[in-house]
């Protein structure tokens, strides 16, 4: 037994006993002389060293342990990134591994080239890792051939027509269509889709964009400001859909804003999840101030979702926060563009409308109607006084003001008349509603028919409210209400004829031989014609009692909802405009 390094007469170390002692489970004691142990020498046996049952592994060095830990952290980071961590969080995160951090900061060439473009006013898009099996926004755009001249025309029309009534994004005048396509590919894709005149091609693009939204948002979770602005543009000016979609996409937009965290201040303390990220090797980047683009997007989202909430009563608007209140002041004080002042004015008006929505939603009608309307009217007057002088006659501002007055005084139309004496406050509200509906429809008729394609759903919702309220005022059963005054002030039949003429002109501009129903203005034209056909007997009966209409005595009774009088509108139940009529 080899024992050159072990003193004789001492027990063999653990695992170094000879074979015979190991089998006998005896203590193996090395002799002071010779190479065998005392037991083997006494029994005159061959002393053979035992084969070790296990080998002690080599203790890893500190450098190898560090490399192993870094590999684990890299694996965790990869899983977090593949899960779609939003790139626009208020507190973003970096790797502690210097090599990975350097790799992450190296973006594709298109982002580097667009950074110089966007530094003048539009921030560059955040890079995201999407599966290559699904089309990117640039792939979708490249599948639609468009000349440079046509692209510039689309951008110019979007600036001058679409953003004139709904300024949810600012595109500096010096930015070209090619630059915008590189910096905001998805926004550009949605712009070209909503402004495509050919209805069949537009329907194809709408389907592709819907598929792309589902892939990016729900599968890849690769959201950023480009995706947010693109979806907001898509839902704002998508002029036709075979299925109602606004409620669903409104939730999507609000979810993206919440994930990006741009609707509130930058948090000063870490949440539990953020603290966990720090523990696994991620640390927060230095928080940056909110950009003007983010502030516009949040305020624009409130304007869109509040309009949808009031019209359909299925969702609530984006929750108003102190940060959004701060954004109103910042945008107004900065005066970066006239569109910012317009957006701030529209949002202030919509805030009053949103309060009416919450009162109606919660059924809070305990205060007297006069107190209810006077308080809200005072708030609207305060918002009106803050509108800049150069915007006080702006078409969008005037239409939103008229719509707000209609919404405030709508309770007077819904409230039944007193049997004995007239309610003077109610009559004042009814007259205010009449003036507001007439004003709104006058502003609508002043819009050239060729510009209808640039009108957002917000104004289409307001159109439905104005025309329905005017019909209710024209047929209101109240002895104290002068219906002849309504006829002389705003003749609803003449107004419908004028609207029908303008819609026919718009429908002819984007005529489709493949599927006329895909032409939203054809759909709107049929709706207006059906409204006139359904409402005319009742209106004529009210205006001229005892006189037959078209040779047939009308016996149509007034219903609480205007939709009850629109029975001939069969086949329009999938159109989103009918959803609005049904909720009023």
UniProtKB/TrEMBL annotation:
Recorded GO MF terms: DNA-binding transcription factor activity, RNA polymerase II-specific; transcription cis-regulatory region binding; zinc ion binding
Cellular compartments per GO CC: nucleus
Keyword Transcription attached: yes
Residue stretches spanning the membrane: none
Keyword entries, A-Z: DNA-binding, Nucleus, Transcription, Transcription regulation
Location of the Zn(2)-C6 fungal-type domain: 17-47
Protein localization: Nucleus
InterPro entries: prtT (IPR051089), Zn2-C6_fun-type_DNA-bd_sf (IPR036864), Zn2Cys6_DnaBD (IPR001138)
Keyword Nucleus tagged: yes
PROSITE patterns: ZN2_CY6_FUNGAL_1
Name recorded for this polypeptide: Zn(2)-C6 fungal-type domain-containing protein
Source organism of the structure: Penicillium alfredii
